[in-house]
Design brief:
11 strands, 2 domains, about 240 residues, about 15% strand, 11 helices, three-stranded antiparallel beta sheet
Length: about 240
Amino acid sequence: MNIWAGVVFDADGTLLDSWPAHAQFLRDMSRAHDYKLTLPETDNIKNWRKYAGNPMAKVLQNCGFAERAVLEILKRYEDEFAENYEVKPFEGIEEMIDSFEKAKIPVYIASLNTERNVRRGLGRKLSKRFSAIYGLESINKHNAQRNKADLIFQEIVGFYGQGISPTQFCYVGDSESDYWAAYDSGTRFLGVSYGWDLRKGDETRIRKQGFVHPIMLASSPQEIADMLLKRDLKFQRPYKE
């Protein structure tokens, strides 16, 4: 019997090393809309982290774009980003997928980026190795209230029907919002410390209503596979501060 019914991945900051491209896009949009935003240089990833958010509208707000410009920039993001900004997978992603395939564990993607952007970043060959890729189009197709937790549960966990617990799935992401998506969908969560938000030392950073939500963090794509393929992996429950 497989350890997991499936492993679900966030895209940006987890599978895709996309922040440099996003940084360039944001700087370009600042110039195109004649904003005088003081944004870090493209390669200054450390200083860009304070602008990170989910979804892209949150990033634009964090950067200081006016509300009236956000919708127009989001349209340009959906239409132009995949064609004009190069994104590549993190080193080791293909080998990580090899490990899950050998264990016969299906892999999925649930992202608030567009499916088009995700597939373009992964490339055609790697994209085909995922059982399904759900992006912003999947949310828009249903209604604007759906979120990443809905994608994980309804589109992926729900596909398996009765008899499969959400805890038999693990969602892997690089941000606190990814943790809450996993929490709200009932799945396990594994964080990564090489992405946009979470860092080693953040294992007890996530707190809400007086509870600490401990997380585990992988420092590389291969460590994701190594950790999730261990049968003795223990996930801690939230506890009162």
